[in-house]
């Protein structure tokens, strides 16, 4: 296995722990901060937005029999009426609303950064293996055909994947998650800049 590399500082073993702690902390905050709960006694606390008479009309929630505030929605998963409802998030196992949306964004940002950092760190380790062993100029032996073949990028990747399968699998997983979470974060930053929620975008 790959234990040390001159292409990445040993300080990153500590940086990795710090990033891990940040991920756990952001998850804990996002999953334990309530989104808000509209009840008959808390209506005035969340009555911030005017009715537009299009998406939001002044009417009664048929489930809880309380006035349905603009931008709020009854969440069937938590059975609560959530102010400025965005969506129910399975990752943090609760609704995202007025009181915890900023922590949900923090959770996404930290995990996108973690994935990008992970991709970079693993890349530096694997790149060190390629350079130190001069793999791009090596000759490989095909065990099936018995033919010697000159190295190319695909052959080198295949060699690294077979030799360092756990590390390469982590690299691929982190790269995919960095793209997926990055797009998801970008979407939320965009709708936030437009003062919209996921629920409102889907209703348009």
Question: TL;DR?
Answer:
It contains six helices and eight strands. It is mainly alpha-helical and about 200 residues long. The strands form four sheets. The protein has a two-stranded antiparallel sheet with strand order 1-2. It has a two-stranded antiparallel sheet with strand order 3-4. Strands 5-6 form a two-stranded antiparallel sheet.
Protein traits:
204 residues; two-stranded antiparallel ribbon; 6 helices
Structure report:
The protein has 204 residues and is mostly helical. It has six helices and eight strands; from the N terminus they run ααββββββαββααα. The strands form four sheets. The protein has a two-stranded antiparallel ribbon with strand order 1-2.
Bin the strand percentage. Answer: 5-15%
Count, helices: 6
Mean pLDDT: 90
What is the succession of H and E elements? HHEEEEEEHEEHHH
Strand-pairing-aware structural class: mainly alpha
In the predicted model, the low-confidence regions spanning at least 5 consecutive residues are: none
Main sheet specs: 2 strands, antiparallel
C-alpha-based Rg, rounded: 25 Å
Name the strands of the widest sheet in spatial order: 1-2
Estimate percent helicity. Answer: 40-55%
So what's the overall shape?
elongated
Ends distance: 52 Å
Question: How many distinct beta strands?
Answer: 8
List the helices and strands and how they pair.
Elements: H1 12-32, H2 43-46, E1 59-60, E2 67-68, E3 73-75, E4 80-82, E5 87-89, E6 94-96, H3 101-132, E7 139-141, E8 148-150, H4 153-163, H5 165-193, H6 198-203
Antiparallel strand pairs: 1-2, 3-4, 5-6, 7-8
Helix pairs in contact: 1-3, 3-5, 4-5
């Amino acid at each position: 296995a790959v234990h040390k590399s001159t292409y990445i500082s040993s300080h990153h073993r500590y940086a990795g722990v710090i990033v891990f702690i940040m991920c756990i902390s952001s998850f804990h905050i996002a999953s334990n901060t309530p989104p808000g709960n509209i009840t008959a006694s808390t209506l005035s606390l969340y009555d911030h937005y005017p009715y537009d008479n299009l998406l939001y009309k002044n009417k009664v929630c048929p489930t809880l029999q309380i006035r349905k505030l603009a931008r709020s929605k009854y969440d069937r998963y938590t059975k609560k009426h959530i102010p400025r409802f965005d969506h129910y998030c399975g990752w943090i196992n609760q609704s995202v609303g007025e009181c915890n949306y900023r922590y949900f964004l923090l959770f996404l940002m930290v995990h996108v950064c973690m994935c990008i950092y992970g991709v970079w760190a693993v890349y530096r380790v694997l790149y060190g293996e390629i350079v130190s062993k001069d793999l791009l100029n090596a000759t490989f032996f095909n065990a099936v055909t018995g033919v010697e073949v000159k190295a190319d990028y695909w052959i080198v990747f295949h060699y690294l994947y077979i030799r360092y399968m756990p590390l390469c699998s982590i690299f691929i997983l982190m790269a995919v998650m960095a793209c997926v979470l990055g797009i998801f974060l970008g979407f939320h930053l965009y709708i936030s800049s437009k003062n919209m929620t996921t629920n409102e975008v889907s209703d348009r």
